[in-house]
Design brief:
The complex is a heterodimer of chains A (401) and B (220). Chain A has two domains: 313 residues, no CATH class; 56 residues, no CATH class. Chain A has 13 helices and 21 strands. In chain A, helix 1 runs antiparallel to helix 6. The longest helix of chain A has 25 residues. Chain B has 220 residues and is α/β, with parallel strands linked by helices. Chain B has one domain. In chain B, 30% of the residues lie in helices and 14% in strands. Chain B has a six-stranded mixed sheet with strand order 2-3-1-4-5-6, with helices on both faces. The radius of gyration of chain B is 17 Å and the shape is globular. Classes of the chains: A alpha+beta (401), B alpha/beta (220). At the A-B interface, helix 1, strand 2, helix 8, strand 8 and helix 13 of A face helix 1 and helix 2 of B.
């Protein structure tokens, strides 16, 4: 991997264009600029290697989740929210051929020159526009037209066309109070509108289910929905009051993602791998890439483990001491002691920083998407310390031919 | 003018504090083809006689008033920093918060602003829409586009203090709940708060923790 600096004199316009043409509406987090001044270059070999590993991981994950869905013993080990456990009987109608399965696997280069995968964003991965439009903007900005990339957006459009054949209404479900959710949905909505779909933006409680069919209740938009594209995490959705969310678990309306996504979203997913292997599902790729993961309560005197919340997102509350700010580390450890069941412990790996062409070093998380089992582009973020969290910067990924 | 051109007027290249200008309403100006408002009011600043080196301002009035007063503050040396972050509702549906007026008023504000020179290091007047926190829906079929301001949407306490800010004046009827949550930490760091409705002189304010603040889960 290489980091190529965007020339200083071109960066202001690059940032402006990212905001206005590439749906980057959240370019600042406290004092951190969240749009990198770099482009991440992958060699052809690195790209091929990551694609291969991604698709192997995805195959294992998809087989695993179908198996878990029918196995109460495994489900118990995932520490799912009680309200979701109650919905599992409703999820038995899951038919993968009727839904679109989207995931993103987080790859990190390690100091021993191997890839480490720290998690799968199984439920509602984001970063769509950053992976679809930003690489092209970067390619034009640095004037290297021969570098190429896979557009997540185009892959998703193809997957949706396969299911809906360019006809119908798609509802983009998100937390309507958050512009950073809307930017993800707006990119997808604008692109799908060009394909001829009717697009409705709404919150999870704007859908009612009748005979398992999704129906939009937004004023002047009342109609049946042909595809639910959900960006509201399931563990948030079940907090919705009044309770109108049961239908998401057994709807016959096509979904991306269906609620089956919750199994691999739990960071306790590795705790069922041995059971899965006994059931005949190989978890070989996962086992080779994910650092050793144990219950938080079992760390005891074992060294070099970090804590992660079971449903954490964007690197929040991960106890990498040197990456924590102020008293954050102490607060996390205090919280782990109070609620060990809400965390897992993972063997710490040493992230290998990538030296940019200006000599500065950065840590990278290379998110690799899959749609329906196929690799579907990259969403990468970089940080000057070894944790990729909300302060990290989005960096477009381009591939050398 | 396009939304992008208007954004550039509020967030010109290499000026202090402009990184926090939020692009959301400016993008919407193009998406929804917004036009300037017809009832713009040029507002004079009544609560402050002159520019103060150690003072930042948060204007928390309704969107249009906030932008009008923000432009008024330009005349005594402050830089308006719009941090509106609400999105527009689904076409045809009703919304909890009116974002149109904010988007349109920003166009009028830009017309005024482009004619005025602001010093590079001018202190900020952050512009907010007080109706952002209106989350009430009498029917579920209404689109909730209310929004809160979070600590991450503005500079850190350290950035404020390192840039000489010791006082923050909030222009509004009260300190709204989202601002209160952020400002309690600022106050702990030694920043003083003052409140004015925009007409009367500023009053020093001590933010007090409420029971709910103590009960809230520790933020990590």
């Amino acid at each position: 991997m290489e980091l190529l600096k965007i020339p200083e004199e071109k960066y202001y316009n690059y940032r402006l264009n990212a905001m206005f043409n590439c749906y980057k509406w959240d370019p600042q987090f406290y004092d951190s600029n969240t749009l990198a001044k770099y482009v991440l270059l992958l060699s052809k070999q690195e790209n091929e290697e990551v694609i291969k590993l991604t698709e192997l991981l995805d195959k294992e994950t998809r087989l695993a989740e179908e198996c878990i869905n029918k196995n109460k013993k495994m489900i118990k080990k995932l520490a799912l929210p009680r309200e979701i456990i109650k919905q599992i009987p409703n999820m038995q109608t899951y038919d993968k051929s009727k839904n679109i399965r989207l995931m993103r696997y987080d790859f990190h280069p390690s100091i021993d020159n191997n890839w480490v995968v720290t998690e799968v964003n199984s439920d509602v991965p984001g970063g769509f526009a950053e992976s679809s439009l930003l690489p092209d903007l970067a390619r034009k900005t640095i004037d290297l037209p021969k570098l190429y990339y896979t557009s997540f957006g185009e892959m998703m459009v193809n997957a949706i066309n396969d299911k809906l054949n360019k006809k119908g209404t798609i509802m983009l479900i998100h937390c309507t109070c958050f512009s950073d959710d809307r930017q993800v949905m707006q990119f997808m909505g604008d692109r799908l509108e060009k394909e001829g779909y009717k697009i409705i933006y709404g919150a999870a409680d704007h859908i009612k289910f009748k005979d398992k069919q999704a129906y939009c209740i937004l004023e002047n938009n009342e109609q049946n929905i042909d595809l639910i594209f959900r960006f509201t995490p399931l563990e948030w959705l079940i907090q919705m009051k009044p309770r109108t969310w049961d239908g998401y678990f057994n709807t016959t309306t096509k979904s991306c993602n269906h609620s089956i996504s919750i199994y691999a979203q739990s960071k306790k997913f590795p705790f069922v791998w041995n059971d899965l292997e006994h059931a005949g599902i190989s978890m070989k790729t996962w086992k080779s890439l994910l650092p050793e993961t144990i219950e938080a309560k079992d760390v005891g005197s074992r060294q070099n483990f970090i804590y992660k919340p079971i449903y954490g997102r964007v690197g929040e509350r991960i106890s990498i001491e040197e990456a924590c700010k102020g008293d954050e580390y102490k607060k996390i450890i205090r919280d782990v002691k109070k609620h060990p069941q809400q965390y897992i412990a993972q063997k710490k790996f040493i992230s290998k920083p990538i030296k940019a062409d200006d000599g500065k070093e950065y840590h990278i998380c290379l998110g690799s998407y899959t749609i329906e089992g196929k690799h579907a582009g990259y969403y990468a973020r970089m940080s000057n310390y070894p944790r990729i969290d909300s302060y990290a910067a989005d960096v477009p990924v381009l591939i050398k031919g | 003018m396009t939304g992008k051109e208007i954004y550039e007027i509020y967030a010109p290249f290499a000026k202090k504090w402009v990184e926090w200008v939020r692009p959301v309403p400016f993008v919407a100006i193009d998406t929804y083809n917004r036009k300037p408002i017809s009832n713009w009011v040029d507002r004079k600043v009544k609560f402050l006689d002159k520019y103060e080196n150690d003072t930042a301002i948060f204007i928390d009035l309704t969107g249009k008033e906030s932008i009008e007063l923000g432009i008024g503050l330009v005349h005594i040396g402050y830089r308006p920093i719009p941090i509106f972050n609400g999105t527009d509702e689904q076409n045809g549906s009703k919304a909890t918060t009116d974002t149109y007026i904010v988007e349109s008023s920003l166009i009028n504000g830009a017309e005024k602003l482009k004619k005025i020179e602001i010093p590079n290091d001018a202190n900020p007047a952050f512009l907010l829409d007080s109706s952002r926190i209106n989350r009430y829906r009498d029917k579920k079929s209404i689109f909730d586009n209310s929004w809160d301001l979070y600590g991450q949407d503005i500079p850190s306490i350290e950035y404020f203090t390192q840039n000489g800010i010791k006082k923050i004046i909030v222009v509004g009827n009260e300190i709204n709940r989202d601002l209160r949550k952020i400002f309690l930490k600022f106050q702990d760091a030694g920043i003083e708060f003052y409140l004015t409705d925009g007409y009367s002189s500023v009053n020093k304010l001590v933010l007090k923790k409420k029971i709910l603040d103590y009960l809230e889960k520790e933020e990590i």
